[in-house]
Specification:
- This protein has 2 helices and 7 strands, in the order H-H-E-E-E-E-E-E-E.
- It is mainly beta.
- The strands form 2 sheets. The chain has a 4-stranded antiparallel beta sheet, with no helix packed on it. A 3-stranded antiparallel beta sheet has the order 3-4-5, with no helix packed on it.
Length: about 150
């Protein structure tokens, strides 16, 4: 795997440090395995849904934390009192941590667990002050020169 040095970008671009951090995070993959599998769906222009396959986890074993621009989904399996003797074990019974980087103004608006699928609903809410607005053009005013 290649490592890219983004130092020149930090030196010449102002305000794009977050973009460079996102690129570094994506390139490093920070140990995120493919477990549990997930989908990211666009429901509309400003609404999204993350669906994670968390079969075998109860609501008490799942935790969703949103802090700043990071969304952390954590699953912790409760230890079983009885010991099982498997002939074959294909269902993972391990905990997980999955981190998602959220774009600016994207917030979690809800979550639900049904049939082993965890749905996390997200919405982008851009503040009015940052939305584009139309500027009316008026007639030129002639100043009296005295």
């Amino acid at each position: 795997m290649r490592n890219y040095d983004l130092t020149p970008l930090y030196r010449s671009a102002i305000g794009f440090d977050r973009l460079a951090q996102l690129a570094e995070h994506a390139a490093s993959n920070k140990g995120n395995s493919g477990y549990p599998p997930y989908n990211i769906e666009s429901l509309s222009e400003n609404r999204y849904r993350i669906t994670m396959a968390v079969a075998g986890f109860t609501m008490d074993e799942l935790e969703i934390t949103s802090e700043g621009e990071k969304l952390l989904v954590k699953g912790t399996k409760v230890e079983q009192d009885q010991e099982r003797k498997y002939l074959y074990q294909g269902i993972a019974e391990r905990g997980f941590e999955r981190t998602f980087q959220l774009a600016d103004y994207v917030t979690v608006v809800g979550a639900s667990l049904e049939n082993g699928l965890l749905d996390i609903d997200l919405q982008r809410e851009i503040p009015e002050a940052l939305k584009p607005r139309k500027i009316e053009i008026g007639r030129s005013r002639v100043l009296d020169a005295k």
